[in-house]
Amino acid sequence: MAANGGADAEKRVRLSRDRLLRGAIAVADTAGIGSLTMRSLAQELGVKPMSLYHHVTNKEEILDGIIDLVFSEIEPPAADADWRSAMRHRAISARSVLGRHPWAIPLMESRANPGPATLRYHDSVIGTLRRAGFSIGMAAHAFSLFDSYVYGFALQEASLPFDTATAPDVAESIMAQFPTGGYPYLAELTTEHVLQPGYDYGDEFEFGLDVILDSLERLLTMADGPTDRRLTERPLILAGMAVLLHHIVIDAHDLPTLARFWTQVLGWRILSEREREIVIGTAETAPVGICFMPVTDRKITKNRVHLDLTSGAEERDAEIERILALGARRVDIGQTGAESWTVLADPEGNEFCVVRPKTTLIG
Predict the structure, then answer these.
(1) How far apart are CA 333 and CA 346, in angstroms?
(2) Per-residue pLDDT tens for 71-108?
(3) Stated pTM of the model
């Protein structure tokens, strides 16, 4: 009996809060969060249930602790990462962590007594967005958007009736129940996408993540500075319009040269490059872009349409010099010198203006 008492005492000495919490995670990982009780945890740890109360007050304290450990598993981005890379890294890591602990998904934002890892994670995400230039309001919107996407995707992924290995068999079984000719689009997507070699539903995650990042990046570039109030406003959506402005098209002889000139002027990027069409913009999801199309005839008339560019008052002269250095030239249209705009032409003679600083379309 004395020997057994000594063994029990040794177990009690080895039991710690950290070991208790990791044991709770093991129970939840194995059988789900509903299976976690003081009794099942004591059995996992090889101790008596009452010994747990030396380290925690109740089950709620255990839930606080294990959610904090889950947050601690999300890998922080590199210290020198830009905001987009940092947010992408965190989201991918969070999805991976939740894939290991799917029971934690509905609990991640539920704790009234968050632990230090939970608080560090939230503070770090907000800090990344604020340092990038997002206003307080826009940082809150972005954080909520990321959480909703990551948690929602992880929940759906955990709920699917198949994994990567079994997806083809399950999909074919479901399709076998379709009536002939029924659900043609669902059948098409299943046949042409799900049943293709290498299909992995998880690949959809990064596609959606990049759509979110592109949209936030576009909103960020709309601002004049880190505190611009426009970042706290919703982007304009013209509901009910039959048509929306899609591309501004510029005819060109040398598509690559002219496209690269304008990407450098505007700080945009090439989105699509084909032999007879190059499209540039801030992102594929941006509301408007510039499309360059080939022509063979020489430019012989004044523009019927031109672009107006604007910048901050302090940067205007420097921006004009920068654009000239890229290959633009000044154009004389009879200015007196008192104008608030400067006329330039791109390398193929298309005229555009750099106007005085503007904060609205009519200001």
Answers:
(1) 15
(2) 999 988 887 889 999 999 999 999 999 999 999 999 99
(3) 0.58
